[in-house]
Write a structure and sequence with these properties.
The protein is about 25% helix and about 20% strand. The mean pLDDT is about 85. By secondary structure, the chain is of the alpha+beta class. The relative contact order is 0.09.
């Protein structure tokens, strides 16, 4: 009953069943969001500042504050640093992409995959949905953690890796990591990566703006990956969700470890969510 009102008036970070987890407008709610709003009852409660009450269709508490917050977030998005395409020329070729990942020269060139000799790390360029360069993800070549380093200030919850390549594609794969998405494109499968195993509200909105009608979920081959399928389904409205399944004899932990043939099989033989047995 209150879902659309919540999405309109609150900065929703994600959904947990019928509970919308939002940024609280009554205090500086950074880090993990703390305001929970129930879509059935309209009851809301912040576990930090203790703001609580009930929404009504005609009255939304703190609406003016929420509008100001939304304007602030919009201005922050507009202020995100971007780079000209030539900025990527500073990075050089590296055999890892061909010898280890087995990507084709065409794919390496398409995604401008490289290596930063100054940092001693591999580079994966990231773009906004409109195609602007937002920086690079660094990948370590040693065993140090974390393995992947995102640009400072980059908000994964508002972006999907590969979004700038989606034009007229209506059926698209969704994977967890950028390299899994690149592996799918290497097998002629249009794909997006969620930068993790959850689909945030901003990412779901971006999917709809891209015009995606059918989403083939191809998350990792583990328990969190299977849980992610259900979370992604619950986060999307108006998009058909299908599930790409791993064959029992496949030992791969993610789509990137599959051969091109098996990636294609996983994508093209995906089953509707209601048929998937999890």
């Amino acid at each position: 009953m209150y879902a659309s009102l919540i999405e309109t008036r609150f900065d929703v970070h994600h959904w947990e069943g019928d509970e919308a987890v939002c940024r609280c407008p009554w205090h500086d709610d950074t880090g993990r969001p703390n305001l929970y709003v129930n879509a059935n009852s309209g009851l809301y409660n912040c576990f930090v500042c203790n703001a609580r009450g009930k929404l009504t269709p005609d009255s939304v508490p703190g609406a003016q504050r929420l509008d100001l917050l939304r304007d602030k977030l919009r201005r922050k998005d507009e202020a995100v640093k971007t780079y000209p395409d030539e900025w990527l020329d500073r990075f050089v070729d590296h055999p890892y992409w061909r010898d280890v990942r087995k990507f084709s020269d065409e794919t390496i060139a398409r995604f401008r995959l490289g290596y930063d000799p100054m940092a001693g790390k591999l580079t994966i360029p990231i773009h906004s949905a409109s195609g602007k360069v937002l920086g690079v993800i660094y990948r370590r070549l040693d065993n140090a953690k974390p393995k992947y380093l995102h640009p400072q200030g980059f908000q994964t919850s508002r972006n999907l890796f590969g979004a700038h390549l989606i034009t007229r594609q209506r059926k698209v794969a969704l994977v967890e990591g950028p390299l899994d998405a690149i592996a799918c494109w290497d097998a002629n499968i249009p794909a997006l990566a969620a930068y993790g195993s959850r689909l945030a509200t901003g990412q779901a909105q971006l999917l709809r703006r891209l015009g995606v009608q059918t989403l083939v979920v191809m998350t990792d081959n583990d328990a969190p990956g299977r849980l992610a399928v259900r979370q992604i389904k619950s986060s999307l409205k108006g998009v058909s969700v299908m599930v790409g399944e791993y064959e029992p004899h496949w030992s791969a932990k993610d789509p990137g470890e599959l051969s091109k043939v098996k990636r294609k099989q996983m994508y093209h033989s995906a089953v509707p969510f209601h048929v998937w047995k999890g």
